[in-house]
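User:
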Amino acid sequence: MSQPLDSIAAVLESTGDYRVLRRLEPLTDDPDAPNEPTFIGLVLDTETTGTDYATDEVIELGILKFEYGASGRIYRVLETFNQLHQPRKPIPAEITRITGITDADVAGKRIDDAAVQALAADVGVVIAHNASFDRQMCEGRWPVFAEKNWACSCHQIPWRAEGHEGMKLGYLLIDYGFFHKGHRAIDDCHALMALLARPLQASGRLALSSLLETARKPTVRLWAQGAAFETKDALKARGFRWSGSRRCWYMDCDEEQLEGERAFLQQEVFQRPVAHLPVDRITARDRFSARTNPEAPAS
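Assistant: Predicted structure:
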């Protein structure tokens, strides 16, 4: 924004009657050399033909490869990757309406699989704003993603506790005073990178630091195997979810919550001691993967 327009924006904001949103610019490199251990990560976003990872395809892949410190401070973007891909079937009209990507845009285009594999080979973590979707869309085509730790910036940062009413990328940017061109892969990557580099509004902690702390913690999935049908309301009220493929209620929780949930099941659902309820331990290596999707067919 030019100096005269900056001045106008400042005057408007000083009245308390206006909020001015500024166009988001890509994150610039930190001028200071790192004084802490550093690591390599990816911010990733996909645009797809639909939401079924088994049948739909990625039509645009955006990636920012970046260097970050143990503190969560982002130092620099190392590589930018954005490519389109022509799917086997025409792009649905609704997808074109949302993304602006047309069949003409992707005609003859193909994402360079070898380049994606090479780009991700040395990273420690892959971050997406809806990792359960993006991971499952990516790991079938690019096996390297099945081997990586993943983190979800939408659900693993306590945005609501930090004062935000919504968790969508566009809403969060607005709260920080920015707007961007959403629903294109690389633009959403730049938006997410900017959010991760900023302090959270209530705690002041760097968003990336908060995300990585949560992502590193193992979680457990407790299955209420054998629960009677008439206990479904109690299970649902407690936060258990129904897996249609497993025909069973389950809950994902932190390890320290496990004994409390077991006690709830024994007291309120089974009304008797129950030994050996199935429990799956999940880490960032498997979390959000199709391997741990509770709706995937049981093997």
